[in-house]
Every structure is written in C-alpha cells, then in structure tokens.
Amino acid sequence: MAKLKRIKSKETLDNDPKSSVVGEAMAATRTLDAFSNPGARTGYGELNLINTTEYPLTRMTQDWQLLTSLYRTSWIVQRVCSVIPEDALKDLRIEAQELTNEELDRLDLLIKKTRIRRRLIDALKWARLYGGAAAIIMIDGQDDNMSEPLKVNNILPGSFRGLFVVDRWSGIYPSTELVSNPNSSDFGLPRFYEVRDEMGILKYRVHHSRVIRFIGTDMPYWEAIAEQQWGTSAIEAMYDDLVRRDNVTHNIANLTFKACLSVYEIEGLDQIFASASSVAQKRMYSMIQAMSILESNLGVKLVNKGDSVQQLQYGFNGLPEIMDGAMMDCAGATTIPVTRLFGRSPAGMNATGESDERVYRGTLEQQRAIHILPALEKLAPIVCMSALGRVPEGAEFKLPPLTEMSPAEKADVVDKQSQYLERLFQANVIPADVLLSGVRDAQLDVGITTPIKDEYIEKVRGKYLKDLSAQADPFGGAFQGREQIVPPEDNETQTNKDPEQAK
C-alpha cells in the first residue's frame, strides 16, 4: 500500500527560495487504501464473486432501435416515458398581474389552438425515451430565415403557428459551435441545429433561440460530448430492473401451467441412453410423448408394470414478495411510485400511499423548476406577442399546484388569506386595492374562475380605511363613540310648543 512520503525535489528547491531553507518538499503519490483478507478471500484484489463484478460502459442510449422496441412492446416503458410529462404539464397557462380577464382568455385560446401542451408533452416524452428532443418554434413568414436569431419585436399578431417536435434520432443534429454569450440561457449549448430528412438532406439550419431543448438524464461533461450535447434515456438506468421484472413475471406465468413435476422411474433408463441404438432411443422418446399427450387429453397416465411415478409439488410461497420486490425496484429506478407506475393500490399494514405521493410530488416540482419552466421562458413572450401584440411585464408560463383541493379547502384558503389582509386594512397598513388584489390572487391560486373584477379594484386604488371612513362621515370620525350634543331650547320656545308636539 502506497503512502505519503517526504522527498527532496530539486525542481522545487530551485524555484522556491523558501524551500531551500526548509530543505524538503512534500510530494503526494497515489494511494490504494482498501480492506483485504487473503485467508478468507475477501476484500480488495481477492478472487471472489464480489470482486468479479464489473460495470461496463454500454451507452445503451445510443441503441435507438432497442429503445424503440422497448417502447412498442412494454407498457411499463410507455408509462415511464409519459407519466411524468403528463403530470408535470397539467393545465399550462400564461399569467401576469396586469393582464385582464379578456387577455387571459385570448392567451388560453391560442395555447389550446396551437396545442402547446400536447407538443411539450411529446417533447418531454421522447426526451425521456431517447435522451433528447427539441421543440422548434414555428413563426409564419420566417421559414427562410430560421438560422437568424428570433426577435420578439418582429413577431406579428397571429403569426405563431405552434411547435414542431423532433427527437434526437429523427434528423436533428446539434452543431459543434457553442453559444459563447454568458448572458444567454443557452450558454455552452449548441448554437445551431440542423434538421435533415430521411435521406440526410439538410432542410433547415435553426438558430438556438428558436429551439426549446429537453434532455433525459443529465450527464457529466465528457459523456454529454459523447451524446452530442444530449442526455441519456430514462430507460437506461432501469433496464436491468425491467429485465428482472419481466423474467419473474414470465416464470411465474409458466409455473401456473403445471403446478407439479412428474418423475417417472424406468428400469434400465441409463443403459437405453448409453448403449442402445438410435432406434431404441427414438422409441423411448415416442413413448414419453405419447404418455404426455394422454395425460393432457385424458388426465391419465400409462406406465409399465413395476415402474413408479412421483409427483413433486411446486411451492408458490414467496412468489408475491418476489414480484413486489421487482416492481419496487422498477419504481425506485424511475422515481415514480408503484401506485402511479403500475396502477396498484398501496399494500401492507397501514398503507395509504401518502408518503409515496409526497415524494413523487417533490420530484415533479424539481422537474418543473429545473427543466420545464426555464425552457419555456423564451416561449412566453412569443405567445403574448402573437395573441396580444405586446409582452406584459412579468408574463410567464404557470403551472397549477400538484395537489387538487376540494371546494371546501379552496374556500378555507381564500377565507384565511382574506382575514389576514382585512386585519392589515383595518390597521391602515395597506390600502383597499391591495386588500382586493390579494383576495383576487388567492382566488386565482386555488382555481376560482370568477375573481374580483379590475374595475372594483380601480375604484378604491390608494384609499385607506381612514379615507373611506372620512368620506362616509363629514366630521371625519370626530364624534365616533361619543354622545351627540344637542343645544338646549329656550324657555319661551318650550312654553309655546304645542302639547302634542311636546309628546
């Protein structure tokens, strides 16, 4: 085992004057610190089953035909590729504070008309299957200058035509030239993407500002280079678990055809196979085949007198646990809970599935924050320019909460938020328009489609409680909480007053 040694380095002494005073320099050599027990054949370097394990670099993602075959034949692979994109992109919409209800409706109509959510789900799905996919932004009238940067100010109303989705094996090739502008969100990524047809003929050279990239699993630098700036397939990490699960399933299915094994004891069987002629052996095979056919059709066995037959029963104990273990491995490799991936209800004592769902929601939130919403930043201004002719300040794509609340829970959230804002308003801390805007935001967050209208907020903009109270009371609240002082009438007036009036 190598260790750290103190050695004299002539190069160090010559370059550093202080080293001549010290007279020695520290130099590190490679160390191999590991446990080893040669007597027991355990530990590093010993010949045992553990040390013969290897992890070869297969790069399965580059075998696109295998991935395609898996997607076509395995429903588990289909769900692995589609579950997360469909759940993460639920109810996609653009929001901004200054947008009116009419403008929000126009944005929602354009999103539905161009099927943006459907195209983004496809892009994420193929990215998870093949390791990478791209959604190309299509603008009417700009087909001839796709290699030029996309400028938002040049987008005319109604010119956005949607997204063209292509996966990494369908003819899109990243260029070796990378984005060098550190202020760009695509810094370090390919500057151009070449789109070719099935004959390899170049159709479009697309600028990176017109491309929304999605990748599967992130890879280190050199592996990203090997994958042409894409990621790896989500199937690659769970392939071995999928193989084990499929084999377990098929083996269990085969056991159900015959739950026992028949053993025939035939006298002189070893001599028949050792010294008998091929004709005698064929007769032996024909006899066994006839016995098998009779057993299957008539349910009886015909054996020679003196021969014996034994039935060895198969034990199915433990098979459900083995099957559940294989399913758990697949779910763990894909970060998708068993209840969502296999469509099974939770099993076991006190099993509710809430913990699995909580972890899964956390995974989806990470997918949204890291991969999906940042990629959509370049798309939101384009949709706004096409639908509204302008880009409102703070306009961006929003995704609703992953947990769906009941109507009672929604009302409770709005009520608590309203009470908190009302206390601030009563203390003259916030104006009335902030109160109403906060209540409206709480309504929108929980999905209430009829929030407080803008005209009501504008009527009380900048007005505090004291201002509204002063408008209702001409004395400015000076006599609130006090008894009103009535001037006394003179005696003559009281004397001449009509008795009926006095009453």
Structure description:
The chain is α+β, with helices and mostly antiparallel strands. It has 4 domains: 5-43, no CATH class; 54-259 and 316-404, no CATH class; 264-313, no CATH class; 407-472, no CATH class. Helices cover 45% and strands 13% of the residues. It contains 20 helices and 14 strands. It has helices at residues 10-15, 17-22, 64-73, 75-88, 101-113, 116-130, 221-226, 234-257, 269-275, 278-298, 319-334, 338-341, 354-372, 380-388, 407-426, 432-445, 454-459, 465-472, 491-495, 499-502, and strands at residues 5-7, 25-27, 36-37, 42-43, 93-95, 132-139, 160-167, 172-174, 192-196, 202-207, 211-215, 260-265, 308-313, 396-398. The strands form 6 sheets. The chain has a 3-stranded antiparallel beta sheet. Strand 3 and strand 4 form a beta hairpin. The N and C termini lie far apart (117 Å). Mean pLDDT is 79; it is low at 1-14, 17-28, 348-352, 475-479, 481-487 and 490-495.
Summing up helix and strand content along with how strands pair, one would put the structural category as alpha+beta
C-alpha end-to-end distance: 117 Å
Strands ordered across the widest β-sheet: 7-6-11
The helix count comes to 20
Radius of gyration: 39 Å
Give the count of structural domains.
4
Query: How much helical structure, as a percent, in the residues?
Result: 40-55%
Main sheet, how many strands, which sense, barrel? 3 strands, antiparallel
Per DSSP, what share of the residues sits in E-state strands of 2 or more residues?
5-15%
Number of strands: 14
- Low-confidence region ranges: 1-14, 17-28, 348-352, 475-479, 481-487, 490-495
Query: Which geometry do the CA atoms define?
Result: elongated
Mean pLDDT: 79
